[in-house]
Amino acid sequence: MEKITAANVESFQNELTSLIEKIHTESNPKQKMKYLKRIDKIQRSISAYRSKSKLSRETKRDLIAYSFIAPNFIGFCVFTLIPIVFAFALAFLSWDGSNPIEWAGLKNFKSLFKDKFFIAALKNTIIYCVGTVPLTMIVSLGLAILLNHKVLGRGLFRTLAFFPYVASLVAITSVWKMLFHPSKGPINNLLFNVFNVQQENLPQWFTGSLVLLSMIMFSVWKYMGYYMVIYLAGLQGVNGELYEAAALDGAGTWAKFKYVTWPQLSSTTFFVIVMLTINCFKVYDIAIMLAAGGNGELTLNSTVLVYYIYQKAFIEWKLGYSSAVAMVLFVLVLGVTLIQFWGQKKYQEG
To answer: What are the Cα distances from residue 48, in Å, to 7, 43, 52, 137, 211?
Structure first.
C-alpha cells in the first residue's frame, strides 16, 4: 500500500477522480479492471491515512481470522506441541520430577537394549500387532462382504458385530475373563467335557505364553465391528456394473472378489491397516484389563510398550528413561506407517 501524507492527499484525490472518469469512457474490460484495482488501492490508502491506522484492511482481516483460531492453537501448543517437544528433549536427560535435570546424552537409549523388560515389551507389542492387524482386517472384510448382501436379520447382525466396539471395556473384559476362566469358564469346561482335555492340561488363557493369544483374540472381537462398518462404506462405492461384466465373462465368487472387490477396496484397506497398526502399537487398556494380576502389574509375557512407558514414568519416576522408550515407540510407528504409505504408492503406480 502506498504511503499517503498530508502533502500528497490532494494528488491522490485528483488521481481517483480521473480514474473514475476513465472507467466511464473505457471499453476494454481488462483496462477497466486495472482502473478498479487502482481505485480500490487508493481508497484504502486514503482511508488508512484518515483513520490514522497503521494496519491495512487485509492485515485487519488476517488478525480477525487468527483471533478465531487462536484459542484452539494456543491449547494445542500448551497441551500437545510443547509436551511433545519436551518429551523429545527429555529422552536425552535424566530427571525424576523433583531433583535438578541432568544431561544424560545417549545413556537412556544405550540402557534400553540391556533391559529385559523393555525387550520383552517391544517383542510382545510387535507380536500383538502382527497377530491383530491381519486377523482383524480379514474378519472385518469377511463380515462386511457377508452383511452387504440382503440376508435375513442383516441389521441385527450388523448391530451385534458393532456392539463390542461401543460397549464398556471394563464390562466386556469382565465377560471375556469369565468365559475363559481356567476352572469355571465355559470354554475350558467345553474342552474338558467334550474334547476330553485333562484338567492339568487345560489352557491358562491369561497367564504364560497364551496371554498374547488371548489379547489378540479379544482385540479382533472388539474392533472387527468398527472396521466392518468402514469396509461396508467402501463396498457401497464399488460399481455394480463391474460385477455384471465379470459374471458375463464367467467369473465365479472368488474371481469377482479377487479382480473386482479387492482392487476397488485398496484405499479402504490401506486406511484400515494404518489405523489398526497405530492402535495396536498404542495398546495399553486391553493388556491391563485382561492380563494384569491383582496388583495391576503386567508380567514379562504380557507387558507392552505403552504400559512400560507408564511404569517407568509414573511409578519409578524415571522420566528421561520413559521418554527414551516413547521415542523408540514413536520411531517404530512412524517407520511402519511410512513403509505402508510407500507400499500403497507402489501398488497404485503398478
So the answer is: 15, 9, 6, 61, 72
Q: Which CATH superfamily groups domain 109-349?
A: MetI-like (1.10.3720.10)
Please check the confidence at residue 138 and state whether its pLDDT lies above 90: yes
- Higher-pLDDT residue of 53 and 163 is 163
Cell of 164: 463390542
Distance CA 260, CA 145 (A): 13
Rounded distance between C-alpha atoms, residue 200 and residue 103, angstroms: 53
Q: Which one-letter amino acid corresponds to residue 104? A: A
- The yes-or-no verdict on residue 263 having pLDDT over 80 is yes
Determine contact, residues 121/304, Cβ cutoff 8 Å.
yes
Rounded Cα distance between 280 and 333, Å, is 10
pTM of this prediction?
0.78
If you average pLDDT over every residue of the chain, what do you get? Answer: 86
CA distance 12 to 221: 75
